[in-house]
Each structure stands twice: as structure tokens, then as C-alpha cells.
Amino acid sequence: MTRLLRTFVTCSLLFVGWPLLTLAQTIYTVSGRVTDATTGEGIPFASIAVKGLTSGTTSDVDGRYKLQTKQLADSIQVLSLGYKTQSYRLTPITNQTIDAQLVGAATKLQEVKVYAKGGDPAYRVLRETVRRRPQFNPAQLSAYQYDSYTKIEGYINNFGQKRKKNRKPGAISRLLGKLPAITDENGLPAIPVFISETFSNFFARSNPEKVKEKVLKSRVTGVGVSDGGLIAQLTGASFQQYNFYRNSLYVLQKDIPSPIGAQWETVYTFHLKDTVTLDNAVCYEIEFTPKRASDLAFAGTVWIDTLNMALAQVDARVDKRANINFIDELRIEQSWESIASGVRFPTQTQITIDTDQPTPRSPGALIRVFATARNVVENDPKEVGFYDPSIELADDYRDATPLFWKSVRPDSLSPNEWRAMQVVDSVRNVPLIKVAGEIIKLGVLGYKPIDKLHIDLGPILYSYASNNVEGNRFRLGMRTNTGFSKKWLLSGYLAYGTLDQTFKYSANIEYVLSRKPWTVIGARRTYDLERVGVSADNIGNNSLFAAYSRFGTIRRPYFQEENLVYFRREIGRGFTQTLAMRNRTFEPLFPFAFQPQINDNDQTIRDSYRVTELISETRFAPDEVILQNDNVRVSAGATRKPIFTLRYTLGIRGALGGDFTYHRVALTMKHSFRMGILGRTYYTLGAGLIPSTIPYPLLYMPLGNESSFYVGNAYNLMNYFEFVSDRWATAQVEHNFGGLLFNRLPLLRRLKWHELVTAKVLMGSVSSANLAMIPGTDAQGRAVEGFSSLTSTPYVEVGYGIDNIFKVLRIDAIHRLTYRDNLSRTGIPVTPFAIKVSGWLAF
């Protein structure tokens, strides 16, 4: 019998009055939305039940619900924690819409706890849930993929409140009060400053562990940002992965224990509140709170399916008592559904981040993230190479019509969301807001765009320096942007010193051969002042320290002319290969000389040289996420797996005037890992070998630090150029306890300080042949400055410190344990103990 015929028969029976048959076959559907009667905002996870029956459901994160039942009573009841229960009359029709408005409860009932024998029954439920984690954890699938929709909204709020003693609001608040705004959930004005929507395909596999996101469409509007590819990748599904079946969730650079993770009983207290029906499944409703209110842990409610002890929903919050900077409240709400294999999958996630006010009279910020996963496909792994790169933009990702966005949004936008999309364009075009956006971009990127010329000026950080060799050093740098070309990237700088009256320069050209896999070729020519022991090779990406090293007294300075050509390509599975050829000179401005090798026909003592090097660098970062936008690539870091770098250098004598043949090989590993409630450990290991005889400026020189600032990749109580090695091994370790101790001390708890410890060890030596290369005097008869090398005793420094002071400062007390009385041949005494300061903005 066709559906039309069945419908006709049913209607006929109803018409002639066969009520019993009707009850047996008719399905009644009640749908609608549960909202706050005051604010109009949807109430998530409200319970809706048919009065007198077992049929019921709960609302989603927007307050929408759909209830289906074969029996109908006279009314439904709608209840939610913190609100008065409301009843609504039902009519005897198959489909009806009932929008419920709940009023906040005026009184707070005293809690009554009833425990079964052996304690709260929630613990037995959680114990079984944790035992069954491997069965329902989506991470145990060989692979999965889904269609992702992500919406992110950013607002400025907390500027319209009444001040104490009728004080006038500050200048910023008065300005914000004149801008277009919407009304937030508390009935206060909020100014939308950022809105994005992203639709993508997300892929994951477990062995090897790889993820990939194909961003198909994206739209971004905001103050200080444009509809660019980098923002599109940051706002996609890759950064919204929250799996409560893992032991901890990595949120805002913090590891927060999951209430159903391995530490569930150590960190949390549980209370079985009720049993409710969610999507036709009866669930235990269990409240959980941290055992210590100041611990970095969630509080909230988890719903566990009574049939299979699997996660159904979770509402987890972290408030201001926990140790997260700038955060007044963090909330994650998730709905989990069973997919074909029986595994649970998070199909809907809503995140709310309400920031704290930096000062009592300043505004705050509110961020909302809404993400869905639909059309989940299980156990269909792709080839490993498919997952590289981990984030990929479609060529037409910017091109999407309003009809497309309407089709991929899970639900229609609320009136406030529509209003926010319209208002944000008005806000970003206000002149003062535009200026503020440009200042933010300048501070973050360090470059000032010149749109008409399609170039960026900078980095601003390197524009000025002052030292004993150059005097006042002025530098003007630039680079082209995508308006100039999406294939060619030109950059360079011109610098001048008022004391040495010498121009320095650099010119770099890079061409993008391919974007998948990422392949570039480039060339650079540089002529500049350098200093022995402080070079780009050992400074790394520490741009602030590189700028600082140009100030003050520069010991052992030299001019270097460098010519470099290079080829870099991603070769898949986390590998990146770089091949380069470099020719450079060493022209010292201090007494320097070296004695050629015995087998060299020319035994003349020399004070300068030229080297030609072939360089091969292999980098393996299987867990790293790379953001790519046209000709710009940025690493978003790695969270679980270490990063390895193997670098081999071959010096070729006679090639382009090279004076030496030599070999140099170095291997480094960088990683961090979580130690449960004890915090997180960061470490870097390295080793290298130079089995050749060459002048000491070509040997390994660990990075020292003579400043008053703590530098993460430096030996902070070692002087510049204090030690030289041709074989070495290094270990640098830092462990941050994240407030484990201070959170338990009443007087320190409110400060939200984090305690940490550090240790750095260096072992190394220099061969007798390399020591013999240094003569007593140079060709002019001046005494030649030598160098110090390590003995069998390693260099060791340890430290302890506090970070998160005023949310931005860090203080380290460092002890040098070995070579404490070492007066290096540079003539600079060592410092056995020092207190050093650093700072950065972090959560």
C-alpha cells in the first residue's frame, strides 16, 4: 500500500471515528523552541516531557526541540535548571508548534542529597563509562570524515553597565556606546567586531595519525581583518576538535582534564541528579565539580546513556576561579550521537568564551563558536599522502552566494545573529575603529601595508639600533604582498650606521613553483655586520632577541657577504626537505688569525676567509599544522608528536673561492607532553659533530645571553661566545606546574601565578687539530683572541620561576652550577646567579 493510500485510510478512519486504531498508528509531533522569557535567547538542554507519560526529549544548544509520541496527553511540561517549570496545553492534532518561554526561578532550593549504599551512584556510572571509553571513542576508528559548518562571532561587551557612585564611563566606553550594537543574553549592548562562517570537509585516520581539512567556502568580516585565507583556516574545523573521551582537552593553550578521562576520580566530584530522556534514550544526568575550586578543571553536567553507558551530552564550564588569563567563563556544550558502527560522535558543539575586564572600567569581549558535523563516514581511510597538507583551501573558497550559506547552516539564524552580520560592517568602517584595527595588525605582524604599491614596510622591530661599531643604525625593510604577485615574493632592507658610515643591505627573491606540494625556490644576497657567537643559525626564530643583539657593545664583530640559493619542498608524511648552496665571507674587525693545515701548500697566517657550503636540511613534523595563504605560510605548532630536524653541511674547497673542505651534521628534537595534574613539560634535545679542521668561527657556538631578559632557546648565564665545540650534545627542559602548588595556598591563590622549573645542560669538546689552528699573533703581530672549550664536566644551569605575574610577566631565578669561576678568554667574568625577566600575552 503506498504512502498516499495509507494516509487516505488513516484520515478516513479518523473521520468515521475509530479512535483505538488511530491511537495505534498515529505519531504526534510537537516542535518549537524554548527561550528565556527575559532575553529571548534559546535555553539549551531543557527537558520537554508529555505530562503523565514517559515520552520526552531535550532542546539543542539553540533551544530548539522536536518530540514525537504515539500517545497524547492534555499538556507538555518544560523544565530547565534555574527556571520555573511551565506547562502548555496540547491539541489533538498530529503536528503542532509550541514555543515555550521560561522565567528564572525566584528562589533557590536547598540541596538535598540522597545516597545509595556505598556512596553516590554517579561513581558506579562513571566507573563503567570510563571502562567502556575505548568502545565508543571516535579516535579508535581507523578513519572518519564529515561535512563541517563552523560559525564564530566576536563581540565587545561590558561597556554599558552603570558605574559605582554614578561615575561617568571611561572615554573608550563612551565611544563604544555610540557605535551600532545588538543586545546580548543579559540585555546589555554588545558590539559585533568579528563574524565568520566556514564550510569544509574534515578527514582523520588513526594509523598513522593524520588529519586534513578541505576548506570549501569561507566568509570573514571583522575589524582589522579581511576575507583572507589565513583567517579562513583558523576559523575552520581543525581548531574546534574537542573530544571528551580523551584524558584531557587542549583549550586556550591549557590541558583541562576530561570528566570521563583517566583522572576523573582524582580531579572531580560527581552527583547523580536525575534520569532524563534525550532523543529517545534514557540518560543519567550527572553533575560534576572540581574537588578544589581553584583547579584548572571543568564544572557542569554530563549525560550518560543508561543502555550502553556512552556519552550523550555534556555541558562543561570553567569560571574565573580557575587559572586561565583574561577568561571570566569558558563553556563547552556538546551533543554526541551514535553512528553506524555504534561509536559515539560529537555532532554539535557550542563554545562560549567570556573574557574578563583588564581594568574595572574597561570593556570585555565575548566569543561564540558553533560547529556541526554531518554526513559522517566511518572506516574509509585515504592514502597517507592525501592528508598533506593538513589544511587546504579550495581555489574558489571566497565565492559563495547567500543561498549556499542558507543551505549549509544547520538552523536559520536568530534575529540577533542576523543583526550582528549587518552591524559588523558598519562598525569596521568607523574611522577610529579602522585605525585601531591597523594598529593591532601592525603590532601582530610587524609590517605596515602600503596598499597602492602592494608592499609592506618592516619589520618595525629592526628599524633602529645603537652599538659601539655602527653608532646609530637605521634600517628600512620591505616585502611585496599578494597584490604584487601570488608567485613572486620580493623582500629586503637597506641599513646605515652613523659611526662606521657604511651601508648594509639584503635582497631576497622567492618563487612559488607549486602549492601542492608546497615547493619554492629562492635566492638571497646580504652584506651586513655580524658578531661571533650570535648568528641567525643559533638565534632561530627569536626576532626580539635578534633585534636586541644589535644594541650595546658588540664584541668580535665582522662583516659578512652572503650569497644563498635554496630549494624547499614538502615531500609528504610530515617531511620537508631543503637544499641550499651558500657562499659567505668572514672579514673580522678584531684581532683574528688562523694557521692553515699542515698539508696545505700555503702556510701563510691569514685573517679572513671565504667558504662555499652545500646544505641539506630534513625536517620531520608529523603533527604540525601549517596555515597557508597564497605565498605566505605560518606554523600553528604541534601538540602531540615531536619535531625532528637533521641538518648536514658540506664545505667545498675551491668552489667559488671556498677555502676549506669540511663536514658538519646536527640533529635536534623538540617536544612537549602533559604530565597529568602535574602540568606540562617542554624539552629540546640536540647533538652534532664536525669531524674537520677549520677556524673556530665555523665551529658550534651555543647561544649565550648577556641581557636581563630570559631567552628560551639560550643558555641564560652563559656569555656570548664563551664556549666553542666541534662535537656537542645539549638538553634544555622546562616544566610548568600551572599553579599546582600556588592554587592550594590561600594567600597566593588569587594571584593566579604559575610555578616552573628549568634545566639546561651542554656537553662538548674541541679536537687538538682545531685548537692548533690559532696562532699566538696575527700577520700584524697583534695578540690573537682565542676561545674556551668545555672539559669533561658539562655546563649546567638550573632555575625556578613564576610566570603569569599580572598576566604577562615571568621572573626566573637561575643558578650556574658549573664553570662558576671561569674567566673566559674574552675577558668577561661569568655570573653564577641572576634573576631575569620576560613577558608575553598568554592564556
From TrEMBL:
> What's a Pfam family this protein contains?
CarbopepD_reg_2
Q: Which UniProt keywords apply?
A: Carboxypeptidase, Hydrolase, Protease
Keyword Metal-binding tagged: no
Q: Does the keyword Cytoplasm apply?
A: no
* Alphabetized InterPro entries for the sequence: CarboxyPept-like_regulatory (IPR008969), DUF5686 (IPR043741)
Any one GO molecular function term: carboxypeptidase activity
Q: Please identify the protein, giving its name as recorded.
A: Carboxypeptidase-like regulatory domain-containing protein
Organism, by scientific name, is: Spirosoma agri
